[in-house]
Every structure is written in structure tokens, then in C-alpha cells.
Amino acid sequence: MTTAPEDFPQLLQAKRFCDLLSSTDRHVRKNALFSLKNLILESRLSCDQNHQIFVTCHTYILNAMRDSSEIVREHGIKCISTIVLKVLPSTDFYLCPLVNAILERLGSAEIIEPTEELRMLLLQTLHDILNAYNEHLLVIFMNEFVAILKQSVKDKYPPCKDISCICISQIAQCMPNQFRPHAASLVQPVLSILKHQHQKIRIAGVRCIGDIIMHSDHPSLNNCVGPLAEKLFDRQSAVRAAVVHVAAKLMMNYRDRYSFFHKLLPLMLTGLHDEVKEVREEAQELWVQVGIQFQIENDKDLKDRLDFLADRPKYYPAELNRPNEGCRVLVQRNISKMVEALCFEMLSWQEDVRVRCSQLLCVIAQYAEESIVVHLPMLLKNMYVAVRDSDERVSENIIRAAEIIAAFAPVNSWTVNILPAVEGCSSFGCIKILACFVRAAPHELIEPVLPKIAQTVCKQNVTHVRNALIHNELRECINAIQTQFTTDMPLEIAQNLFNAIIAVEGNGDDLENTDMLEQLRITMNLNSQCTLWKLFLPKLLENIEFDTHTWNGHYFERGMLQYILLHSGAAFGRNLPAMIAILSKALNEEIDPTSRLTIFIALQSALDDESFIDPQTPETDTFLKTLISELLAPALIWKAGASAEALRTAAASCLASALACGKNCELFQAKESFQPLINEVLPLLISLSDDTNQEIRMLSLENMQLLKQHLVDMELWSAEFLITCYPHVLKRLDDPIEAVRNFTVGVLRVILEGPPDPFLAPVYRNHHEFIIDTLFVHFDDMDEEFRSRVRSALDMMIEINAPLLKEIAEKHKPIVRNQSGCDEILKYLDSLHIN
After folding, report:
1. Does pTM top 0.70 for this prediction?
2. Could you tell me if 706 and 615 lie in one domain?
3. Which of 345, 418, 325, 430 is nearest to 376 (CA)?
4. Per residue in 92-123, pLDDT tens?
């Protein structure tokens, strides 16, 4: 029987509170709500009585939720939520007004409730409703819930976003079937908070998206994968860990997960390379669970693999732990759907994306094992570009991926793709990748193709590229090939590597670098680099094409020849016929002056090396004569211009080195062939003694001195040669350059020393007098040191004509300033009893 209103005083008291709620004083309205709530909580009334109070008061309380006063609205929310959730039975009759009130305040496109804290209070009430009521009752209000949460999740107040995500997850989990039709409408609102500045809100959004996807249709997953992937670049590790958790949850529990593994795998696998150790470990643990579950679900299909392929592969990288079968099969079955996207993102303009993709490639390479072979053409093409990335992290990851692939992929599967790219040699990326594959491939497998690789590396269109980066990578590639051998490298491979080293180092910035040759020597177990040169230089000279008519200052064969001259040493002396043929082309007058000059300079350095000329080689004499007569002599002829002057200087230097080398080796023993050489060179040297360049003048004198020494050794020293030379040497005593004058005195002493017997005859007295008179002129020089040098030259005339020297000294004494010097000469001559 229903209780009449007059049967219990609380109803009358509640009516009085309703009257107070109509007051114009906000404090009265607030106190009325507070008292009404306490009345209902403290009074132990029956359900019917509580029902009558609710029916009587709920309209006033709901109106209070619309009050202009914030404090009144707050107490109105607390009052109605307390009555409905803590006092009244769980029925839709009582819940409906409360849900509608929340919908009214929060569910419209323009939220009516202006106060952040009250919006939060309303959402907390909604959260309490979801916790307090069962699924069957909540289903009735699904439309209202979704309408509220679609707006509240976009609230500017962060706590509202957080609790809205929690509410969405609650609805998705407790009412999955009813939630599914509405899930798509919540995707975009929730995705909008993934970029929120607060870490907590981003984490809540990621988790909420996971619950939405779990209980929604396929389009929702497609729409969310991209934004979730972006969160893998979040600066906070907790956000990245949340993405990994969502991915693992979907891979294990999503109802149609097999159709979407290729989309979820990148999210899962990227976590394995996270910067934070805890995230990596957590991702690894979850990934193992995913693999084990997949393995259990497909135990029949995987039975053979589990039974017969359990052993670790022979060439599996020692530093890697092999994943479980489920993880490997998951990647192998989905790699074809991931490769294209991976290759595209690997070249993204965003640095972080490229880093993550390069890390992902390492993981996929490890898990895919031999299954990656099918996709190598596409992968390699993009790896060539990615390995050149300015970000070292990307480059290092690509190198690591290449090394992992090399451990699994058959050698023929990657050589057929990489070697043609290397031959094209459009960039250094393909060479760098080749070096990685060669270095990491098992020796037993790669050994049959190493000759082909070495042959490709030494081709002209690979080595003859003026690009320092390509040269650096060629060095790495050559070193990688050498690492495949501890001893007994085949000569064919070594020859190709030698050729490539000469081409690369000969056109590098440092022509003195011989580190690569030293490494090759060690690999070949040879006792010296000289032996290395002797072993491989003949074949190099035989095969290389020195088309000198196309040479210029940057031509590659020119750089190779220059390097050979600088470093081949005695090996050059063993290949003189081939070298003189090459030099005849390289130093031809039609060749670019810059190229000729560099070859002259290198040739001089080679001739200065004591080991360069082997006197036991029968061709040495012919080589030097041909060099002097056909190559150096034409360059000594005077021509106008700075280039011609530089060439004359270099040629004169080479001539001096060649003559000095010949003397040390006791060459030029054939008198009948050497005399014509003297007759050809001497006039040129005399001409050069008047050159405007002081260095050339000094070199001409030095060469005259060297020629004199050869003539003495060959018993061809004659008065004619002396008479031809000495006037031009004496002339240089008047040179404006002090260094030339001092050098001239030394040369003059050498030329006058040991004069030919015919020159001592009286018939040559005029020559003797000319020499002595000229020397006495300079013996009166202001420079004391120079006078001392001239005195040493005058002493050489004692052997030639001492009486004439005394006569001229007495004649000059009264008229020179250097009286003491004349006295010393006369005194010395008197001591020799010269009359």
C-alpha cells in the first residue's frame, strides 16, 4: 500500500526545500539543496517514500543544475547524483533525468556548462553511473552517452579529456556489441587529443583509441594506425610504451587481427628499438607473448617447422638471439605488405621517421631471415639512398640491416642486384651497401663470387669518378673484401684490388697515403711493399689505357701514373720499357701543361729515390737516355709564358735527378751513345743559364756540373767542353740574386777541378787569363763570405796556371780594396815557389 504524503514528515520537509529553491537568494537555494541531500541520506525511508520525495523534488533539483549561480549548480549536481546513485534503486526511471541533465549541459556542440570544475563533476557523475549500473540498463542510454563523450573528449580542460577517455573505454568494454555502431563517431574526437601537451592526456587517448579499435569495425583501425604510429615519435617514453601495449593487445585480441597484422606489426616492432631500456624490455616481453600465442593458434601449420627447424642456423649472427617461431612466421607472412610502405617512409623528409624506419628495417631483416630475398630489389634501391643520410643514426641502422640480410640471403640473390648498381656508380650508397654485404657474408658462401666483386670494384667507371665520398667507400669495400681472407688471397683478386687501390689513391687528396697497399701486403703475406709492386705493377701497366691525348689536370690515368712514380720504387725499374712508352705519351708537348707538370714533379721524386733505378736491369741505360733526349730536352727549350717556365723548371729538375741517379749507378758507360746526348743537352743548358727564373739558372749550372762528372767518369772530359761551359758559369757571378752567385762559385770549382791536360797548354793562356781576371773582379766584392768563396775558386787556378795567377795578382794588388786577400794569395804562391 502506497504511503500517503501526510504519513511521513520528511515529504513535507522536502516540499518546503522545494519552495526555498525558488528563492531569489542564491545562498538560500544552495542551503536548501544541501539540506535536502542530507535529509534523504540521513532519513532511513522506504523505497516508496524515497520515490515520492524524488518525484516531488527532482524537477527543482534539475532546475538548480541550470542555475545562474555556480555554487548552486554544483550543489544541484551533487544532490541529484547522490539521490540517484546512493539512495534510489537502479532503474531507468531515476537515471533518465540525470543522464538527460548531463546531456543538456555537455552534449551539445556548444557546451552550456561554462565552469571547468562543474563539467568535470558532471563527467565524474557519468563515470559513477557507468560503474554503478549494469549493462542492460546502460544500453538504453547509449546514444546519450556517446553524444556527451563526443563533446567532452574535446573539452579544453585536461581532466575532462582524461575522464572522458576512461568513460569511453568503460562503455566499449562493458557494452561491446552496442558500442560498435557508435565507435566510428568517437574516433576523430579521441584522435584529436593525441597531440595534447600533457603526457597523461596523450596516454589516456592512446589507451582509449585501443579500446575503440578493439570494439569497432575495420575502418576505425585503418584510421587510427597512422596517428598511433606518430606517437611512436613522442618525446615521452610512457606514451610510446602505451602505443606498444595497444598494438600488442590488438595483435592478441582483435577479432580480425590476422587481416591487420601487417598494419600492427610496425607499431609493435618499432618498440623493440626504443631509446629507453624499460620500453624496449617491455616491448620485447609483449612481442614474445604475441609470437607464442600465434604459434599456439597455428600449431598444426607450424608443426613441421617446430619439429625440424628448431636448430639455430649455421651462419646466424652470433650477437643476435633468434626469436621464437611465432614471431618469425608473423613477420615472414606479412613482410610483403610492409615493404613498400617501409621503403617509402625510409626516405621521408622527417628525420625521426627515417630513424624509426631504419630501425624497423633491422628488426624485419632479423625476423624475416631468408624470406626477405624476394624483396631485395626494392629494399636495396632505397637502402642506397638511406645509407647516405646526413643523420648518422639512419646510416648506421641501414648498415646494420645490410649486415643482417647478408647473413641470411644467398650471395647470388644480392650480387645480381648490387653489382650492376655499383657499375653504374651514380652515388656512393650502393658501394657502401656492397661493403656491408661483403663484410658480413659467410666466407664459405661468398668465396665463389669474390673474384667477380673484385673485378667490378676495379672497373674504370667505378674508380674513375671524381668524388671523394665514392673513393672513401671504395676503400671500405676493398678492405671488406680483404677481411674475407686471412691468407692465400688468389692473385686474380689481389691484382684487381691493387688496380683499384692505385686508381683510388692516385686520384685522392693525399698521394702519400699507402695504408691500403700496406693492408694488401699484410693480407698477401709479402715481406715488403716493394715486393707487392713488383708482383702486380706489370699487369697493371699492361691493362691500363693511357690515352694521353685526352688528358687534362683532372684525368684519372694521370693521377695513377703520378702515384706509381711516387711509390713504385724498384718495381718501376723492373718495367722500364712499359714505363718509358707511357712517359713518352704523358710528357708529349701536345698534352695539357698541368698534367705534364705533375708528371715531371712525380718523376723527379721517383728519380731521387735510390731504389728507383736497378743498375742490373739492361734497359736502364736506354731508359735514361731516352728520357733525357726525347722527353726532357724538348721541355728545356725556352718558350714564353708561365706554364712553359714551370715546365722548364720541372724538366731541369728531372734532368738533374736523372744525371745524379745515373752517376750513382755508374750508368752511361757507352761513350759512343753518351757524347751525342751531351751535344744535344749542353746548348739547352747554356741557354737556360740566362733564364729569367733564378731557379732555372741554378738548375742549368747544376746540370752542367753533373755532366762534367759523367764526362770524367767516362774519360770524355775535354778542353772543348770546358771552354764551352766556363764562360756561362762565370757570367752568373754577376747574377742579381745572391743565392745564384754563391751557387755559381761552387759549380765553377767543380768544373775547374781536374782540368783536361790539353787545357793546361800555353795555347789556352787567354782562357786562363779571362778566368783569373774575372775571379779577381769578384774577389774585391763587398761581401766577405762571397770573397772567401771566390778565393776557393782562385785556388783551383793554381793547378791550371800558377805563374799567370801570381802575375795577375801582383797586377791587381795596387788597384783593389782587398789588399789582404791579394797578399794571402801571393804569400801562398811564394810558399809553392811559383816564379
Report:
1. yes
2. yes
3. 418
4. 888 888 899 899 889 887 878 889 999 999 99
